[in-house]
């Protein structure tokens, strides 16, 4: 891994464990075990560091999604529901610290249109994967709107799970499948 990646992973771990107030260049350097000034050499401002964190979170999400989908987009209601459920289990289990960091950055963006726009640009990529899956399944009225709604449902379930609220994964799986079925009309061959 590169020093830049190490710094960003340290920042993410710190945000996920201690919240946004902990995020300073100096603390990131200390967390990463690198010479003081390293984080500010890579990320001149706190905003640049936050945007780097967002990029790294997206990069990790892309790898997780690739592992879950095994290089093929889910092309049925069941396989998409399975993929979204697997993502939820992973993001609330082994990646819970990263998920808490993601939500902390989202909350930090409130009232900051530039940071909100940066989050939206990065989120669009992930929503696109879901939209392409929906499109491959059938005639959907608006795959982008449906994909956004599914992503929002997933984010809500993830937020509740990482904040200590119980979520029955089987109930989530059934609910997300029901939502997908409501948006997709299968193509008749």
Task: Give a written overview of the molecule.
The chain has helices at residues 3-18, 25-32, 38-42, 46-69, 77-92, 96-108, 113-137, 143-162, 169-183, and strands at 138-140, 184-186. It has 189 residues and is mainly α. It has a two-stranded antiparallel ribbon with strand order 1-2.
Quick structural overview:
This protein is mainly alpha-helical. It has helices spanning 3-18, 25-32, 38-42, 46-69, 77-92, 96-108, 113-137, 143-162, 169-183; strands spanning 138-140, 184-186.
* Poorly predicted parts: none
**SSE order in H/E notation?**
HHHHHHHEHHE
Question: Which geometry do the CA atoms define?
Answer: elongated
* Main pleated sheet: 2 strands, antiparallel
Overall SS class: mainly alpha
* N-end to C-end Cα span: 48 Å
Could you outline the blueprint of secondary structure elements for this entry?
Layout: H1 3-18, H2 25-32, H3 38-42, H4 46-69, H5 77-92, H6 96-108, H7 113-137, E1 138-140, H8 143-162, H9 169-183, E2 184-186
Which labels suit this protein?
about 190 residues, mainly alpha, two-stranded antiparallel ribbon, 2 strands, elongated
């Amino acid at each position: 891994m590169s020093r830049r990646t190490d710094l960003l992973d340290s920042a993410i771990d710190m945000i996920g464990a201690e919240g946004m107030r902990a995020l300073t260049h100096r603390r990131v350097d200390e967390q990463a075990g690198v010479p003081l000034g390293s984080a500010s050499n890579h990320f001149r401002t706190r905003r640049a560091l936050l945007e780097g964190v967002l990029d790294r979170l997206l990069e990790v999400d892309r790898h997780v999604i690739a592992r879950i989908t095994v290089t093929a987009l889910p092309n049925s209601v069941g396989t998409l529901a399975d993929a979204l459920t697997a993502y939820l289990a992973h993001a609330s289990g082994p990646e819970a610290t990263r998920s808490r960091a993601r939500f902390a950055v989202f909350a930090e963006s409130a009232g900051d249109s530039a940071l909100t726009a940066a989050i939206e640009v990065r989120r669009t990529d992930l929503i696109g994967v879901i939209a392409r899956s929906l499109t491959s399944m059938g005639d959907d009225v608006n795959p982008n709107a449906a994909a956004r709604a599914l992503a929002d449902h997933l984010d809500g379930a993830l937020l509740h799970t990482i904040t200590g609220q119980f979520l029955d994964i089987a109930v989530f799986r059934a609910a997300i499948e029901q939502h997908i079925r409501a948006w997709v009309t299968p193509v008749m061959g």
